[in-house]
Amino acid sequence: MNERTAYCLLALLNLTEEKQWAKATDPLVGITPMMDFARNNYGADYAPNTRETFRRFSMHQMVQAGIALYNPDMPDRPTNSPKAVYQISPAALQLVKAYKTRAWSRKLAVFKKNVSTLVEQYAQERQMDMVQVRVRDGQAVSLSPGKHNGLIRLIIEDMAPRFMPGVTLVYIGDTGDKWGFFDKELAAQLGLNVEEHGKMPDVVLWYEAKNWLVLVESVTSHGPVDSKRHIELKALFASASADIVYISAFPDKRTFARFASDVAWETEVWVADNPTHMVHFNGSRFLGPYA
User: In this structure, are residues 251 and 151 in contact, taking their beta carbons and an 8 Å threshold?
Assistant: First the structure.
C-alpha cells in the first residue's frame, strides 16, 4: 500500500490525470515502461536501480492478488526475460471501470469474494505452461516455462541416461527459483558445501558407477563452461569427494557454433538435436574427469 504500487496500477490501466476511470484499458506493460509512465505523467521519478523493487514489492503482490497477470501474451517466456510484461486482469479491469459509479460497492464485494478463486484459476493456467521434469521414478518437478528449462529437461531425461546410465540427480536450477530441486542429503554425502556459496551450474548429477560429479550448463543464450566458468565451478565444488566432469549443453548446432570458441578445454559438449553424440574438448579421453 504505497505510491509506487499506485503508479503501477495506473500504468496497467493507462490512466493519466485527465482520463475517467471508465476509460481504463489493459495494455501489456513492462517494469521500465511503468517507471517511465510514472515519471512522464505524474512527475514521479524513480531511479533505474529500483526496477527490482517495482517487480518484487509491487507487481509480485498484485499478481498474487489476482489484480495483474504475468506474461499473458506468452506464458512460456523465461522468468528472467527482459521482455517480461504485466496486464491488468479482466476481472480487475471491469471493477476499476465501475469506480465512482453506483455499481462500485457491489462489484467490489463480488471481486473480494471471488479473488481466491481468480488467483487459483490464473495459477492453474500458468501451471499448464510449466516444464515438467522427471527427477525420480514417479516423481517430477515443475520448472518455469522457457527454452532454458526446456533444455534442462532434455539434459536430465535424454542426455543423462544415454551417457551415464543409473545417474542420480542432485540439483536443478530454475530461472524462476534458483533451487528448483536439491537433494540436500545426497549433497552432504558427496561432501558438497555449496548451498549458500557461488553461482550453481544448471544441473548437478552423480554418476555412482564411476564416482563422477557431473556439472552441466544449459546454454540457450549465454553461459557455456568457458575458462572463467571452469575455474569458478572447480572452486565451488572443491569439497566434493567425487571427480568432476564439466558439460555445456546446447539446444542445436547453430547455438553451439556461436559459443564453440568459448568452450574450455577439458570439458564436454552435448547438442540436444544430435543427442547420440558428445563433443570432447580434451583430445586424450572420452567422457571423464582430469586429475
Answer: yes
Span 194-203, average pLDDT? 70
Q: In percent, how much of the chain has pLDDT > 90?
A: 49
Q: Are 41 and 17 in contact (CB under 8 A)?
A: yes
pLDDT at 11 over 70: yes
Residue ranges of domains in the chain, CATH in brackets? 3-127 (1.10.10.1820), 131-281 (3.40.1350.80)
Q: For cell 528449462, name the residue.
A: 149
CA-wise closest residue to 75 among 65, 64, 86, 66 = 86
Residues 59 and 88: their CA atoms lie apart, in Å, by 11
CB-CB contact of 168 with 205 (8 Å) = yes
For the chain, give the secondary structure using H, E and C.
CCHHHHHHHHHHHCCCCCCCHHHCCCCCECHHHHHHHHHHHHCCCCCHHHHHHHHHHHHHHHHHCCCEEECCCCCCCCCCCCCCCEEECHHHHHHHHCCCCCCHHHHHHHHHHHHHHHHHHHHHHHHCCCEEEEEECCEEEEECCCHHHHHHHHHHHHHHHHHCCCCEEEEECCCCCCCCEECHHHHHHCCCCCCCCCCCCCEEEEECCCCEEEEEEECCCCCCCCHHHHHHHHHHCCCCCCEEEEEEEECCHHHHHHHHHHCCCCEEEEECCCCCCEEEECCCCCCCCCC
Half-sphere exposure in the Cβ direction for 133 (13 Å, CA): 27
Using one digit for the tens of pLDDT, what is the confidence trace for 63-108?
Answer: 888 899 988 888 767 666 788 999 999 989 999 999 999 999 999 9
Query: Distance (Å, rounded) from C-alpha 22 to C-alpha 28?
Result: 18
